């Protein structure tokens, strides 16, 4: 189903300060980060290389419902949280897969925990046949898609993907990587006063590690590993969240233009990453990203420098005095 590279990803601890600082630089009108040197935005190439998810295939779209009770009962044999809800409790899904008692052990990393839980689920599923096996597979895919790829805040798992899981043979035909990016863009557009984002936040972290190395938020762990998320650890910082966010903004305001990496993947061995070759026709294109009833534009023209082209430095109007640093609240041009 083309989820193999994504499911093999290891844990990346969340850098809440970095994610929050990037969120405060997000312009929802142009769907891009706005920095003193111009616009930047994660692209489909970033998604493919960092996560291993495919961006080629059918758009993740279709009918959405006011209530998912009927498809959840029919396809998963479970119940949603409320009459007009698209959420299922994480613990309920765990229990349905026979891993309700698979609690995380002391000192056990997220990768080890998920690997152990997957093995336990596989052992429980191998005894099933026919419709029961299909039901368990849909439960597992709902967990992967609704909690990781199109994740929500908190424990509940989204099940908007269920209509696309009815025909299990076609699940791998969808562009789940493009849906991940659309969902992330939509979450970044929420109020900057809300800490964190819904969606697959490690993409933002590793994107910043590659494009903005001057921030110094990363530690190399496994050179040459693919997908690229496997190559990094988060460098922990014991300072307060607000202090970290302020320091990240200060660095972004003063980073030399030449220290921004616009083409960080030059020299990568694409022969070991077939998912990159399949997605290459979609790299560098202005395109609409689909995630069910969310459709957002990916504007490459705003980030021309990312493609090795010229992008003029952006001048931001300010009401502050000449010796003061420009404020951070601004809109795209």
From TrEMBL:
InterPro entries noted in UniProt = AminoTfrase-like_pln_mobile, MAIN-like
- Indicate the segments forming the Aminotransferase-like plant mobile domain, all copies: 13-313
One GO BP annotation of this record? meristem maintenance
- Among the Pfam families in the record, one is PMD
Q: What is this protein called?
A: Aminotransferase-like plant mobile domain-containing protein
Q: Which organism is it from?
A: Colocasia esculenta
């Amino acid at each position: 189903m083309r989820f193999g590279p994504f499911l093999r990803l290891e844990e990346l601890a969340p850098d809440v300060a970095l994610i929050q600082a990037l969120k405060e630089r997000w312009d929802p009108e142009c769907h891009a980060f706005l920095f003193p040197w111009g616009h930047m935005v994660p692209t489909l190439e970033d998604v493919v290389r960092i996560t291993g998810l495919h961006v080629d295939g059918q758009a993740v779209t279709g009918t959405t419902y006011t209530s998912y009770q009927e498809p959840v009962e029919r396809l998963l044999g479970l119940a949603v949280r409320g009459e007009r809800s698209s959420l299922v409790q994480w613990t309920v899904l765990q229990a349905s897969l026979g891993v309700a008692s698979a609690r995380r052990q002391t000192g056990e990393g997220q990768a080890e925990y998920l690997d152990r839980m997957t093995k336990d689920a596989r052992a429980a599923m191998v005894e099933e046949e026919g419709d029961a096996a299909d039901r368990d597979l849909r439960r597992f895919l709902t967990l992967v898609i609704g909690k990781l790829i199109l994740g929500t805040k908190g424990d509940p798992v989204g099940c908007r993907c269920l209509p696309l899981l009815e025909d299990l043979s076609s699940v791998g035909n969808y562009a789940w990587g493009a849906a991940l990016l659309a969902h992330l863009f939509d979450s970044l557009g929420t109020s900057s006063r809300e800490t964190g984002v819904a969606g697959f936040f490690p993409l933002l972290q590793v994107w910043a590690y590659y494009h903005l190395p001057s921030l110094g938020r990363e530690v190399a762990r496994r050179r040459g590993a693919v997908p690229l998320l496997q190559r990094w650890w988060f460098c922990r910082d014991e300072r307060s969240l607000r202090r970290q966010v302020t320091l990240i903004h200060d660095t972004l305001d003063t980073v030399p233009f030449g220290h921004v990496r616009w083409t960080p993947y030059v020299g990568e061995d694409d022969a070991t990453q077939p998912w990159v070759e399949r997605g290459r026709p979609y790299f560098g294109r202005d395109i609409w990203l689909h995630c069910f009833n969310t459709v957002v534009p990916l504007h490459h023209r705003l980030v021309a420098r990312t493609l090795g082209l010229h992008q003029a430095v952006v001048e931001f109007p300010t009401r502050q005095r000449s010796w003061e640093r420009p404020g951070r609240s601004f809109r795209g041009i």
